[in-house]
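Researcher: Here's a chain I'd like modeled. Treat it as a single chain, no partners, no ligands.
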Amino acid sequence: MEADLKSLRIDHKKKASGEPSRWATRWILAGVLLFLLLGAARFGYNMVTAATDVELVRVQAQGGTASLDEGRRVILNATGYIVAAHKIEVASKVMGKVAWIGVDKGDKVKEGQVIVRLEDDEYRAQLQQVRGQLASLEARLQELISGSRPEEIAVAKANLEQAKADLENARINLDRTKNLTSEGVLSRQALDDAQARYDAAAARVNSLERTYELVRIGPRKEQIEAMRGQVTQARGAVAFYETQLANTVIRAPVTGTILERVVEKGEFLTTSFVGERGAKGYVVSLADLNDLEVELDISQNDFARLGPRQQGIVTTDAYPDRKYEGVIDEISPEANRQKATVQVKVKILQPDEYLRPEMNASVAFYTEEQQAAGAAPKPVIYVPASAVRNDAVFVALGGKAVQRKVRTGPASSRGVLIEEGLIGGEDLIVNPPAELAEGDRVRARKG
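Model: Modeled as a single isolated chain. Structure tokens:
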């Protein structure tokens, strides 16, 4: 037994040179696990903080146009459309079929120039008819004014003298018959017949005396005035149909340019209701292109900056290098409730052939205030519209996205005008991702 107990004694030398203990193994496993956890955390951190590929654009500041001229300062920029100050739709005053049209779209015409002719056969026939009626009535009036001719007076007088002779003869026969009747030679019937012939002759003389007097005096004044009225009425009818005939020739009311031609030869023009596919209501539209305006819708928030006869510089998207002086010529007396705007029209003082109605145009309204000595003009900055989100933009600074609040102006073909928030030279993030936030790492997209 004693020998067996001795055999169970711990050999320290063997332990030092043998396999590691259980606790040592545990410490090793803990170290490995910690290393793995640190690696996973590092990987996750790198994934979360990875840089987002973005499209960058360098902001360009156009300092030369911020101050239009020395002593001018821009107070508001607005965009709109060029319109003709007075656009005219030339219509016909009479109905008829188009016989000839002598202009086309874009042609320049002068005031009074013939542009369309209508068929006029019916109007010529009507005019000829009323002219004949007028000639007849004028002749009748002249007849009344001239009175009876000498020959007519002579005839009337001769008839009267003959009647008087017949009356004298009847008187003699009546006296003879009376004597013979008193002597009993003739009957009472013969006396009555002689008396009747005498009375008839006397009545005829009396009638011819009145006729002779009327022929000698001539027509009554009332008859002449009545005929004058008929003649005046006939002259009015002639003037009316002459006007109708003249209206078959349509002339340009002003000097200008044909903007639209809506009729062709053979089409019918009307002065009443116009259907979609029926008769036409007008022939052409024209305007004087030397009288142009820019039509603007000014926000009610900016309207207080402007006033009557406010001056501005007009530019177009088509010719941005060409500038035109303008002045507010018309302010709408009422606002647009749905759009919260007020319509303003700016008259272009010296337009040229480069300007066209319906062109996009921008107006930079300015004041004559002097800038402070040495102060730099306010830069004009346009950025792509896709870079602006909720009145803010993102710029790349030190590899991170930095949000900048901006105040925007009107948009144009050059982009959105930035009135405040950028100064130029910034690396602007275009089309920022929806999840991009302040402080996120970014890097310029390659390619």
